[in-house]
Design brief:
The chain is an alpha/beta fold. The protein is built from seven helices and seven strands; from the N terminus they run ββαβαβαβααβαβα. It has helices spanning 35-41, 65-79, 91-105, 126-138, 146-164, 187-200, 222-234, and strands at 9-13, 20-24, 46-50, 85-89, 111-115, 176-181, 204-209.
Length: 242
């Protein structure tokens, strides 16, 4: 008998008929960093996340950003969700961009939040990738299941390979909020990434987060992120037929 895998869209907070905000996770696919953010956004939105493929047994990871965005669109379709807002951090920002481009083709222009994300091919050494990989594994807790660790590492390696081949080429006419971190670890990509996002997004607002790439969701850093995102999502727009 074939085991049916759970759906890809994971509800994080849902109360009645409210606008939907969809979160796309960073490399490694874990949703844990988003839980505190979901609680904050859940004051005004129903919040869900699209989990990464490959984190469950007998499930293969997707090999490109385009495949990830297509899968996210299918997950939304299966749930009947048309998001008013899409949020992506790190790799999730690249997937979020491509998802919104696809939604725009259908006439929907959700608000888009990009946090420390790049539209340009990732350039990193094997040593840098190994360090980031183990940082993400460390987020699993003190005694993670070995099989889970192996799947997270495999998903991460597949996803960073996809980022190395990714370049955003299509523009997006919806409202975009771009937030960049200020730590030195990933500083080299930010100037080029910001210039490219500005070229692709005619309706773009920009801000800075006084945080490192991996601590933007920590309790002491999260209020600044929420203070940037909440007013942006509170202005009327999102998922509007054009």
């Amino acid at each position: 008998m074939t085991t049916r895998l759970p759906g890809r869209l994971v509800p994080l907070l849902r109360r009645g008929d409210r606008p939907a905000c969809v979160l796309l996770p960073g490399a490694g696919g874990g949703l844990h960093p988003y839980l505190r953010l979901a609680a904050a956004l859940g004051k005004t939105h129903n919040v869900a996340a699209v989990r990464a493929a490959g984190l469950l047994p007998d499930e293969e990871p997707e090999l490109s950003i385009a495949e990830m965005a297509d899968a996210a669109a299918r997950a939304l379709d299966a749930d009947g969700t048309v998001p008013a807002a899409v949020f992506g951090w790190s790799l999730g920002g690249s997937v979020a961009w491509e998802l919104c481009v696809r939604l725009a083709e259908r006439g929907h222009l959700p608000d888009l939040v990009l946090v420390d994300a790049s539209p340009l091919p990732r350039r990193a050494t094997a040593e840098e990738d190994a360090r980031v990989r183990e940082t993400i594994v460390g987020m699993l807790g003190p005694r993670p299941d070995p099989a889970t660790v192996e799947r997270v590492r495999r998903v991460f390696d597949t996803q960073v390979a996809a980022l190395a081949d990714y370049r955003a080429d299509r523009s997006y006419a919806g409202r975009v909020l771009m937030l960049m971190c200020t730590d030195e670890e990933f500083a080299s990509f930010r100037a080029g990434a910001e210039a490219r996002w500005r070229k692709l997004a005619p309706d773009l607002s920009a801000g800075r987060l006084d945080a490192g790439h991996f601590d933007v969701f920590d309790p002491e850093r999260l209020p600044q992120l929420v203070d940037e995102v909440t007013p942006f999502l509170g202005r009327a727009s999102g998922a509007v037929l054009r």
